User: What shape does this take?
Amino acid sequence: MATFQPVLTRNYGVKDSHLLSVYREHGGYEALSKALAMGAENVVEEVKRAELRGRGGAGFPAGVKWGFLPPNRKVTYLCVNCDEAEPPTFKDRTLVEKDPHQLIEGILITGYATRTTAAYIYMRAEFHRQFHVMQRAVDEAYAANLIGPNIMGSDFKMDIYIHRGAGAYVCGEETGLMESIEGRRGWPRIKPPFPAVEGLFGKPTVVNNVETLCCVKHIIEEGADWFLGIGPKGSKGPKLFAVSGPVRRPGVYEAAMDITCRDLVFGEDFAQGLTEGEELKGVLPGGISMGILGGDELDCKLDFDDVRRYRLLGLGTGAAVVVPKRTDIRTVLLNVARFFAHESCGQCTQCREGTGWMAKIASRIASGAGRIEDLDLLVEISNSMGMMPGMNICGLSDGAGWVVRSVVEKFRGELEEKIKAQPAGAAERALRQINPAYYEGAARVSAR
Amino acid sequence: MPTIIIDGRHIECRERISVLQAALDAGLNIPHYCYHPGLSIVASCRLCLMEMKMAHPQTGELGWAPKLMPSCQTPVKEGMEVRFNSEMVASNQRHVMEYLLLNHPLDCPVCDQAGECMLQDYALKFGRATSRMVEPKHWNAKKDIGPHTLSYQDRCILCGRCVRFCREVAGTGELCVVNRGYRNEIDVFPGLPLTNELQGNVVDICPVGAMLDKKFLMSQRVWFLESAESVCPMCSRGCTIRVDHNRRRVWRLKPRFNPQVNGWWMCDRGRFCSGLIYDDRRLRQPAMRRDGSRVPLDWKDVASMVRARFEEAGKLEGGKQMGIVVSPFMSCEEAWLLTSFIRQVAPNAMFAVLPSPVRGEDEIFPTGSPRERAKFVISAEKAPNRRGVEKACLQAGGRHSSYEDLLAEMAGGRIKTAWIAAGSPESSGPSELIKAAGRLDYLVVQDYLGGVLSGAANLVLPMCAWTEREGSFMNEGGLVQRFQRAVPPPQGLMQDGQYLFEIAGRRGVFNAGRVRQMMAESGMAEFQAVHEAPVGPVHAH
Assistant: This one.
């Protein structure tokens, strides 16, 4: 731990770090010229050797992903996923805002390695400031012959466009993102064909997260061996973690993936514990869709594999939100359920209707009209949305179901306690009030 | 042909189809909503999910994959094994059915789709009896989206078939999905209603009662309807359709699947043409002119009168002064009966086929695509049977003249006795005939609507609508398709085939199949196998 030196965030403290001149002073674009000298195949090999896993959430090995591209392709596109819509996540925002040229360099190296002709940075709608910073950086790079034809005097040419989203969570899913760039409704596509074969505009496409591409730059700069020296087996390299909630020092931290959730929340170099008078109830460590950790599960290592032992869906984006003791777990449940009900694209039946139903149930529980059987129902609904991840077109429904089940299972005791503490007959009165027709009907059915 | 294993059954199936299609072809009832064989695959309803045997990624051992796969999206592969009869599959079906009904109003008693609703059918077979949702349902509004179509968005299950149809077949793309999640609904853009000429099909392919036909709205419960196999008479394309009727009235026309002609679709002009059957201008009884006024005739006198008249005229130079105009609105059988009778009594009579009305050019769908990529074509020729009557004419008469020649002969006064069949359901006999008809001694007019031509005739024989007769049409591609009688003709009318049968001196009841047999025996082999014509089932869903 002590030996870990920040890499991705090393320029964050530098004044005007978003400018090309400042970036160059700190060794910028040397990795690109190194990559151009290495040749495309060697760059791919180097990244494969570094075992770089995607930082967007799923953790798929980046080099392997590039290897899926058909060898005799004419056009290749690169989509840079800067949608960052997962709640509590704000790591990519800082990368774009503080060090846009690091990203551009990563894009160019990846583009060179994958013979990309054009890259599209798909940027979250709410990133106004970040968009202007990024656009300025792209313009600067064009002017300096870093993007465009004959980059750095070589015969490599590539364009970079910034495409702004319109505020949909599902457009962060790689195929939803491509639909959105193409100007259509951001409905994820069915696979196969996979994007590497038939992606953006029907052409072979690579989709990578902002942080992944920034890592590529450093792998080329420092070499795969350096990258392999950081972090535990299977989760190599530096990773950004974001912490929010009632902690002393919320923010983005860079660390190797051998840190535990406890380190991240209480560590002196990290969030430094909860604010005065707060106690910890749980942590949603990987963006909300990965699930929740109870207060007794803080020893969970934040790498791609250990999280599964704690029944999390995966590492996710590595953005932890801390839930304090005074927060009613029912409101946590409502919050996560409501988010997914709002953001489900509505393509697959289970997700469209299941998220809406879960939100309605969670809302009723939060309003003090819950029933014990509602908890079983929530678990059943979430199971049906993804008994096994990948049952629907995209992963949104898996995440939506996973977190609700995770909250209900891990905090069942508290939920039951709260429901039992409701005034007698509260649920029945509420049911009669919100849906008299159903209540009467149900009474008749049970009387039979 | 690959063989696959479904639920332990070995099934031989066509190449390059989905597992779902293979299962459906094999007669298995696999629930599905978003899948339609005529549209692209979106795999979004998630109802047709199945279990599949796959090689384990590490050990390579063949076993049931832990997750369910969409059968509509999985292509068949030799030797693959899938199953639909497991508890996991049934559990998914039960959940999906419960979800689809969560926000559905369950207003079957007032819904037109009830009785042919896939939501009803699948809820009964694969769903659960009660909903466990206690909160109020989310409600979307009913919308008027086009001249023929109403959209009841509260009933919609978002399978997206209608949206894909407008994009992929009509090529106009008026429909889209708006909003997100459970608030999703199908809508048109403001100010751009559903106007394409195939919009009736969105009602057909809607598996539930979300898209409804304004004309049929609240008019009949579908379980009272009976269906007759039929052919659309509105253009020479001859779409294979069915006529749904009840209590002697035609209520709606629906396409039947026929890959050679129309696929799954039909156009609105054909679909909504049944109003023509109830036109007030229709001729209602046979009539003759006597002393300048029209006198109604009794059917039992018609045959002998016409026969006598034409036998008489035929005696003069073998009927050289006789002219016959056959109509492209007649069936093949009717044309053959008429022409073979005339040829028999007047071997030298002149025959011609009335030209079909032509409107614009062929309309190709998807709009703007080249003909070879057409998914649906509306022909410019607006008559169903020109090729068929030409064929019948040639066979019975050996030759026929051009229509213009016949007109000139009539105008020149060289023709004294004529039989003119018109029969367009949209307008009475063409006006150019009237001038020529002025110089005739005796004129028989067979027409559908009353007008100047029938007014000038010595004898008027009313024609029946195609739903009131039986016969066959030969379409522009030479395909012969039979149509059944769906409803009886109005009081006072006799089926065209019957009076032509009697005029031709044959005894008994007109039977189109028997006439076709005779036609086949006289050398027209294409009429032999009409009964075996490759058309889809009457109840194509």
Chain A has a mean pLDDT of 93. Residues 57 and 317 of chain A are 5 Å apart (CA to CA).
